[in-house]
């Protein structure tokens, strides 16, 4: 069943238009890679979904028009965002950060710390004292604590040590196998992205130029639009 339906989405920063026609459809439980070179509109698409920027076109989550909602209500409708730059409450402990985000559902402190054991080990530490990788795990944990139907990760492995990246990719594989949450992923590491994704959507200059099963994404298409 379709969870997220985006058609002909446009958006601007003041007078500067960034999105000209984004199409993106996601089903429950599906992992979709949102791809494209730098500046092609990936983060802007995420901002539009989360209503952090004004947009026009079709933007429906589970049959509900997101355009009529303010951003805090989008989160309540089941969109969990892990934004670029892993925002957590620096002065709160790991536990407090997780509890502050909690909404009823299958994701609890127990499940999050089972997915990321390091967070359990750091439960009473303030977020500011965590490593970059641990902060990223906390940001993902916080998004999961909202019990989202759609989880969005914007460059979640950016700037992290290889071993921590592997832990995050492993967690995403587990989420894909063990839960029904739909995941929209933006990441520079195309190999890892392809390994975990079911579908891909490629943007160029604010438009969807390719979408399909990840298995149909040929090296030629990748080279043309993503530059590898
Ligand atoms: P990256 O991988 O570099 O983050 P992206 O695909 O996520 O790229 P966006 O950040 O969505 O791309 O940017 C799309 C376009 O919008 C770019 O031309 C960018 O310069 C412009 N843009 C992004 N943020 C702003 C902003 N706050 N004000 C003005 N223009 C912006």
TrEMBL record:
Is Transit peptide among the key words of this record? no
Its GO biological process annotations read: L-amino acid transport
SMART domains, per database record: AAA
Query: Which keywords does this Swiss-Prot/TrEMBL entry list?
Result: Amino-acid transport, ATP-binding, Nucleotide-binding, Transport
The ABC transporter domain is annotated at 4-228
Q: Which CDD domains match?
A: ABC_TM1139_LivF_branched
InterPro entries named among the record's database cross-references: AAA+_ATPase, ABC_transporter-like_ATP-bd, ABC_transporter-like_CS, BCAA_Transport_ATP-bd_LivF, P-loop_NTPase
Extract the coiled-coil ranges from the record.
none
Report whether ATP-binding shows up as a keyword of the record: yes
| One GO MF term attached to the UniProt entry | ATP hydrolysis activity
- List, alphabetically, the Gene3D superfamilies matched: P-loop containing nucleotide triphosphate hydrolases
Question: Which family does this protein fall into?
Answer: Belongs to the ABC transporter superfamily.
Name the PANTHER family on file. ABC TRANSPORTER ATP-BINDING PROTEIN (PTHR43820:SF2), HIGH-AFFINITY BRANCHED-CHAIN AMINO ACID TRANSPORT ATP-BINDING PROTEIN LIVF (PTHR43820)
Q: What is this protein called?
A: LIV-I protein F
Q: What is the lineage of its organism?
A: Bacteria, Pseudomonadati, Pseudomonadota, Alphaproteobacteria, Rhodobacterales
């Amino acid at each position: 069943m379709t969870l997220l339906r985006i058609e002909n989405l446009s958006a601007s920063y003041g007078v500067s238009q960034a999105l000209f026609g984004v199409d993106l459809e996601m089903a429950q439980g599906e992992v979709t890679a949102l791809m494209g070179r730098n500046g092609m509109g990936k983060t802007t698409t995420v901002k539009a979904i989360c209503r952090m920027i004004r947009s026009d076109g079709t933007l429906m989550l589970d049959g509900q028009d997101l355009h009529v909602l303010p951003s805090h209500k989008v989160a309540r409708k089941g969109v969990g965002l892990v934004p670029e730059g892993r925002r957590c409450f620096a002065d709160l402990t790991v536990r407090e950060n997780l509890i502050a985000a909690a909404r009823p559902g299958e994701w609890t402190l127990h499940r999050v710390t089972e997915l990321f054991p390091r967070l359990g080990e750091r439960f009473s530490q303030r977020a500011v004292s965590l490593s970059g990788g641990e902060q990223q795990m906390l940001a993902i944990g916080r998004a999961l604590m909202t019990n989202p139907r759609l989880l969005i990760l914007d460059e979640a492995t950016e700037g992290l040590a290889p071993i921590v990246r592997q832990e995050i990719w492993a967690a995403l594989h587990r989420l894909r196998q063990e839960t029904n949450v739909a995941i929209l992923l933006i990441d520079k590491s195309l190999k890892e992205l392809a390994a975990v994704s079911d579908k891909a959507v490629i943007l160029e200059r604010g438009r969807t130029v390719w979408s399909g099963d990840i298995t149909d994404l040929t090296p030629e298409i990748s080279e043309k639009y993503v530059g590898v």
